[in-house]
Design goal:
heterodimer, A: alpha+beta, DNA ligase i, domain 1, D-amino Acid Aminotransferase, Chain A, domain 1, OB fold (Dihydrolipoamide Acetyltransferase, E2P), 3 domains, 7-stranded mixed β-sheet, B: alpha/beta, Metallo-beta-lactamase, Chain A, Rossmann fold, globular
Chain lengths: 566, 377
């Protein structure tokens, strides 16, 4: 039983919150607030044409208030505010408002495949007289403040907010809380749209919005005005990404114009030393300095004003170890001494982007490489290594070398034009990755689960098994590799041949055989099969193969023996 | 009432009993309607309802291909449905009757009642020795202005569809959806882009003609849609006129026009001649963003001829049934919910629900369906 005072307090609080919501900052006419953003997300989510998306984005950047723009840039470049409300609370409030049992919410969620959308669909309809259109920045900044509040305050805020929003606004609002916006807009596209509305080059914008900045304290002008100067020393450069090369190498021209390196299987990263500080950035633009304490010794050894591009790889005595080792420490907040010993890492450097505080990206690769070699040599420390340049004279010779990639712990080759500059993003022409054929194994599908996003409500996530005597042993999941048409056919099979249901997972009659491709294999005691695969995906549906002819656990163990040890 | 939980395993053609409830199953059971591998069967009256294999006597709820299949010797249906069956299944022994008219079949009283799904769609009421069962077929509770609206029928046992049996499916009032469609068409027109509206040829296509005709003088139709319209007009129905797409129509005339096409046409080379175009899909599945994206549609309009969650619950309550069987759709969620809310319910697996318009992921079916239509009409 609650005491009367408690209720008084509650009512008091409610009044305060009411008063607060009455004075919500409305956007100036024509600028749109949350409604305009919801509209933008709607267009980006459904539009099938890049030009339409670009137009919608640049239109948004023309009309929205500066503060909202900063937040949109932050969100679309993966800078979501910390989760203010945990999702199970969010879910429970929705269940309460919708008046449905929790299991039914779960059923809906598995069908929709997105928590924010499920909640938006289940909440009671908006009372139009309560509809408000408040700015995006207001909500996002309130959400940050909310993080430290107690549950009751959070609940009141969220419910009040929901009650002023349309379904599409609730969806984006929930998205702010639950996760990233994966809605078919890349950072590159956003940068291009910005370049259309402001007087800056796309590459300059890409650099400005990278790194460590806080959307709640950064103004649009600080971020993107022509004269803004970068004060953030940690800021990385946008990564140059390679396309996959397939087929004949001779189309690239003369072999001597190309530099070949191993393609390492690690975490692509930039090592930055500026202002006598060392920073490590991942390709996903995550600041990872603290995850790799062993790099700190390099701070005193590297010259000032240097940015290196390379691969973070577990390595011992200058030789790479399997990627799985890195995974044992990457997710941890605090890394133990034991982990440091068991999974020692090195930085395999292959490019130099900044030297003496000067941007070197427009210099030729040959020149960048020569200076890089000097730097690494002078540092002379086992945690900073050069990614070797492979010697070869003909394309045929290189093709043979590629075959030995697995022996050195690489997943193929990188080819870089010696005269190329360091570009922004994924560009065709100067950099190519030339991977080796994946390892493959034939397996049978035994479990299926519904997918998310555009795969919601169809069974697209499968678990596969190999034979072990009379038993089937699950060894991997795979989500991709089939065409939509094939997914539909497998979905229909699952619906007709499911044996049991465990929550969202269905056990399926073991009948459909698939060839699974993967990049690597490592021992794992977290998996029943004793192995963990790297990048497993479905290569093809083996309609020609009966279950009796699939591979065995023994086959997997042999692969582990051959490729899983370094 | 016997309490029976039967699942038909459609692949093995065996009848399985859900072990959880097995203690409630008496040794010999005589259900008025049994769930067999050919479909819903009334032993007493010796007839099937919407059988999925050829039988002696079939009663058909409506003319969609997952409910009306060929090969049976005798068909009983509403007289609006009769010409549609003739058009789709070819010549046969079809008998059309009025709603609410009782037919005696071996001492079992059978009557048809409006289901509001598409033209002619009926619920089948079956009565024997004072016990009343109703098979819903597909239904919706909102009046679409074309189809005779759904009428609840009191019964002891109600066999209901559950295509959209989850609370995420809450339809907006159709007028609001029509306005959205109209706005979308106007926007496309302004940009000189053609609007291709994907709507199933029987039901949805006729339903959107009125709102579309309010924003355009000419409406073009894919052959399957035009054929269906022809069949309906032959049976004295009236709709806003459509112009059949033929190779002879010059491309210039099609610029910025409106085309109604069945799902089977979506994504085929047939659409090329309307370029530049935008595709809008009219289907209940469009309620979920993922489906719009998967279908690669430029716009999704959640317009359905099936009942939404609230519609299903309203309809079920209105029957006063003490026992509900849920079929094709989210039958397990719906029956569990009903059980928890004081209505005894169980799920049955049927072979319905490959409904062209709402059966997402059955593209092969759709294709066949439309090809059949081309040949037959």
């Amino acid at each position: 039983m609650k005491k009367e005072e408690d209720y008084k307090e509650l009512i008091e609080e409610e009044h305060q919150l009411d008063a607060a919501t009455d004075e919500l900052p409305s956007p100036a006419p024509g600028t749109g607030g949350l409604a305009a953003f919801a509209q933008l997300v709607q267009v980006l989510g459904t539009s099938t044409k890049t030009l339409d998306k670009l137009a919608a984005l640049s239109n948004y950047f023309t009309v929205a208030e500066d503060k909202d723009k900063v937040w949109v840039i932050a969100i679309f470049s993966g800078r979501r505010p910390r989760r203010a409300v945990n999702v199970s609370l969010l879910q429970s409030w929705c269940i309460e408002l919708a008046g449905i049992p929790a299991w039914l919410f779960a059923e809906c969620y598995h069908t929709v495949g997105d928590l924010a959308e499920t909640i938006a669909l289940l909440l009671p309809e908006l009372d139009e007289t309560k509809h408000k259109n408040v700015s995006l920045s207001y909500y996002l900044e309130e959400l940050i403040r909310l993080e430290k509040q107690d549950e009751l305050v959070k609940k009141q805020f969220i419910i009040d907010a929901w009650q002023t929003m349309s379904q599409s606004e609730r969806f984006v609002f929930n998205k702010f809380i639950t996760g990233s916006f994966r809605i078919g807009v890349s950072q590159k596209m956003m940068v291009n749209a910005l370049a259309k509305t402001i007087e800056l080059d796309a590459s300059v914008i890409a650099h400005r919005i990278s790194g460590n900045w806080d959307p709640s304290t950064t103004t649009f002008n600080e971020l993107l005005s022509e004269h803004a100067t970068a004060v953030d020393f940690s800021k990385p450069y946008p990564f140059y990404l390679a396309y996959a090369h397939e087929g004949d190498l001779s189309v690239l021209g003369k072999p001597e114009d190309w530099q070949a390196e191993w393609k390492w299987d690690g975490i692509r990263g930039q090592m930055i030393k500026r202002n006598n500080e060392l920073f490590i950035w991942s390709r996903g633009e995550e600041l990872m300095t603290e995850k790799f304490p062993e790099y700190q010794v390099l701070k005193d050894k590297l010259p000032e004003g240097v940015v290196l591009d390379g691969e973070i790889i577990p390595a011992k005595d200058g030789k790479p170890l399997p990627f799985a080792l890195l995974q044992t420490r990457i997710g941890r907040k605090n890394i133990t001494k034991k982990q440091l010993q068991e999974a020692p890492i090195a930085f395999f450097a292959y490019d130099l982007l900044e030297y003496n505080g000067e941007d070197w990206r427009n210099k030729e690769l040959g020149q960048r490489r020569a200076t890089l070699e000097k730097i690494v040599k002078s540092v002379n420390h086992p945690t900073l290594l050069l990614s070797d340049v492979i010697e070869y004279t003909t394309w045929d010779e290189l093709a043979k070398i590629r075959e030995s990639s697995r022996d050195v712990g690489a997943e193929g080759l990188m080819l870089k034009n010696k005269y190329s500059v360091y570009k922004v993003g994924r560009k065709v022409g100067d950099w190519w990755k030339w991977k080796i054929e994946p390892l493959t194994i034939d397996a049978v599908m035994i479990y299926a689960q519904k997918g998310a996003g555009r795969r919601s409500n169809i069974y697209t996530d499968y678990t596969f098994a190999v034979k072990d005597g009379d038993n089937l042993v699950p060894f991997t999941k795979a989500y991709s590799g089939l065409t939509d048409k094939e997914f539909n056919a497998v979905d229909a099979f699952v619906k007709r041949n499911s044996l049991e249901k465990f929550g969202p997972v269905r056990t399926v009659k073991p009948e459909l055989v698939f060839e699974i491709a993967f990049e690597g294999i490592a021992a794992s005691n977290r998996h029943k099969s004793g192995v963990a695969l790297r990048f497993p995906r479905i290569l093809r549906w083996r309609k020609d193969k009966p279950v009796s002819e699939i591979n065995t656990l023994e086959d997997l163990r042999k692969m582990l023996e051959m490729y899983g040890k370094s | 009432m016997d309490i029976l939980f039967v699942l038909i395993n459609s692949t093995a053609n065996t009848v399985l009993f859900q072990a959880r409830y097995s203690h409630t199953i008496p040794k010999t059971i005589h259900l008025l309607i049994e769930f067999t591998d050919k479909g819903l069967y009334c032993r007493q009256g010796n007839f099937y309802i919407d059988p999925w294999r050829p039988v002696e006597r079939a009663i058909i709820t409506h003319a969609h291909s997952d409910h009306a299949r060929g090969g049976s010797n005798y068909y009983l249906c509403h007289h609006y449905t009769k010409p549609l069956l003739q058009a789709r299944l070819g010549d046969g022994n079809y008998e059309g009757i009025e709603w609410n008219k009782t037919v005696d079949m071996n001492g079992v009283k059978v009557s048809l009642h409006p289901a509001g799904h598409i033209i002619g769609s009926s619920q089948i009421r079956v009565e024997c020795k004072g016990e009343v069962w109703v098979v819903s077929g597909d239904y919706k509770v909102e009046n679409d202005g074309i189809t005779t609206p759904f009428e609840p029928v009191k019964c002891n046992v109600f066999i209901t569809e559950s295509t959209f049996g989850l609370p995420i499916y809450k339809w907006k009032p159709q007028q609001e959806i029509y306005t959205n469609i109209q706005e979308w068409i106007k926007k496309n027109k302004k940009n000189n882009v053609s609007s291709i509206l994907i709507a199933y040829s029987l039901g949805k296509a006729q339903r959107i003609l009125q709102p579309v005709s309010e924003v355009s003088d000419t409406i073009y139709a894919h052959g399957a849609v035009a054929n269906m319209q022809q069949a309906l007009e032959n049976a004295w129905w009236n709709f806003p006129k459509v112009e059949r797409i033929t190779p002879g129509i010059p491309k210039s005339k099609l610029l910025g026009s409106i085309i109604i096409a069945p799902p089977s046409a979506d994504g085929t080379p047939w659409m090329k001649k309307f370029a530049p175009y935008a595709v809008g899909i009219c289907s209940g599945w469009m309620q979920v963003r993922g489906n719009v994206r998967r279908r690669n549609a430029d716009a999704g309009f959640a317009l359905s001829d099936h009942a939404d969650w609230d519609g299903l619950l309203t309809a079920i309550h209105a029957t006063g049934a003490e026992k509900v069987y849920a079929t094709h759709g989210f039958q397990s969620a719906l029956s569990r919910y009903l059980n928890e809310h004081g209505i005894e319910a169980a799920e049955i697996r049927t072979e319905y629900g490959n409904d062209e318009d709402e059966g997402i992921g059955n593209d092969t079916n759709l294709k066949q369906e439309s090809d059949e239509l081309h040949e037959l009409l």
